[in-house]
Write a structure and sequence with these properties.
7-stranded mixed beta sheet; alpha/beta; 9 strands; single chain; 12 helices; about 375 residues
Length: about 375
């Protein structure tokens, strides 16, 4: 193992990066959703509008009972269990409800990452009614200690919904009732009702999830960019503190071995938290370019008798790098830049924050 003052070679950088990349690929967590709603209520549209991957493509569901299907996608930490609504009747619906109850109970016997983490109970707002059977099933689901959110799909006017007001007045044992329109609806050639409510639905859902599920859910959803960035920002200070403890970042070209490891871990972690599928070949040059930007500044700060290149600057270097990465990712997620512009955006932002930081330090070489 190299000590704190040993600069990693290019081969060592690649080795560290690959190890951290594989680690975070396994550490993003797992989120399991139970989706309930009648055929045609818009469940598939809801899923495909919220998540980055097409979780509800026709024919991809795996039957796990006669009526419940499981939807998964490769390299996606979201599993959806889709149950039909109450269009079934008689003994069939009773069997379905027993199957759902058994699914919830069986999953709860396993580690928390296998639990059913929440229910989206979908009701078409255009139906203008909540059936007695739906109300009964919602109460039964809540009794099984699974958070239930009623999603009013195909809601044209979120500010005025008689069904929304009616359901809220029932005081059901649910977490919330949220009206949404998953896809834009064209009314005339000149007027289209834009999709709405999805960002709020995601924010409310994320707030009730255990940590193992919330990381996966936030990373994979695509409608609430601010939530992704907020979650990612929480970890930057942690990594900055780790870099400070690791020692001096100033050693030859790339900085100390341990500091490099902390910073690369941070970049990979931020990438996963933002739900981006950037590979090693894309991310490593961003890190090395940012590290190279820092070196002239660190040399300028190396003043005899004043140790500015130890922990405080190591922490600052890591913090600024994280903020620059998130700045580029936010621009990309908000569709303000393309993928080919991300690296330049991050590096330019990193240069600017370093310049601002230098101006605040006394007695440094300009």
């Amino acid at each position: 193992m190299a000590d704190n003052n040993t600069s990693p070679s290019n081969e060592q950088l690649v080795h560290i990066f690959n190890k951290q990349y594989e680690s975070f690929a396994q550490d993003i967590g797992q989120c399991n959703i139970l989706l309930v709603g009648k055929t045609g209520v818009g469940k598939s549209s809801l899923l495909n509008a919220v998540f980055t991957k097409k979780l509800a493509e026709t024919g991809t569901g795996k039957p796990i009972t006669q009526y419940i299907k499981q939807y998964i996608q490769p390299d996606c930490p979201i599993t959806v269990y889709d149950s039909p609504g109450l269009e079934l009747s008689g003994e069939v619906i009773q069997r379905l409800k027993k199957d759902v109850a058994a699914l919830i109970a069986d999953k709860r016997k396993l580690p928390i990452e296998n639990h059913i983490h929440f229910v989206w109970f979908c009701i078409n707002n255009q139906s203008s009614r909540l059936e007695n059977a739906e109300e009964e099933w919602i109460k039964e689901l809540a009794e099984q200690k699974v958070p239930v959110i009623i999603v009013l799909t195909q809601t044209l006017n979120a500010k005025h919904s008689e069904l929304l007001d009616f359901i809220k007045g029932l005081n059901l044992p649910i977490h919330d009732v949220i009206p949404v329109l998953a896809e834009p609806l064209k009314i005339t050639n000149d007027y289209t009702i834009q999709s709405h409510g999805l960002g709020h639905l995601v924010e409310v859902t994320a707030s009730i999830l255990p940590k193992v599920a919330s990381k996966a859910f936030i990373a994979e959803q695509k409608v609430n960019v601010d939530l992704k960035i907020s979650e990612a920002e929480k970890c930057i200070k942690f990594y900055a503190g780790g870099a400070g403890l690791a020692g001096s970042p100033l050693s030859n070209v790339f900085g100390g071995f341990l500091v490099a490891g902390v910073q690369m871990s941070m970049i990979i972690h931020l990438t996963y938290l933002c739900g981006l599928q950037f590979n090693r070949a894309f991310l490593l040059p961003i890190y090395t370019a940012c590290a190279a930007v820092s070196i002239p500044v660190l040399i300028a700060l190396s003043i005899p008798g004043l140790d500015l290149v130890e922990a405080p600057v190591g922490a600052a270097m890591t913090y600024f790098m994280g903020q620059a990465v998130l700045f580029g990712y936010k621009q990309y997620l908000n569709q303000k830049i393309g993928k080919d512009e991300i690296a330049k955006t991050i590096i330019d932002e990193y240069k600017q924050v370093w310049d601002r930081y230098k101006q605040k330090l006394p007695n440094t070489k300009k």
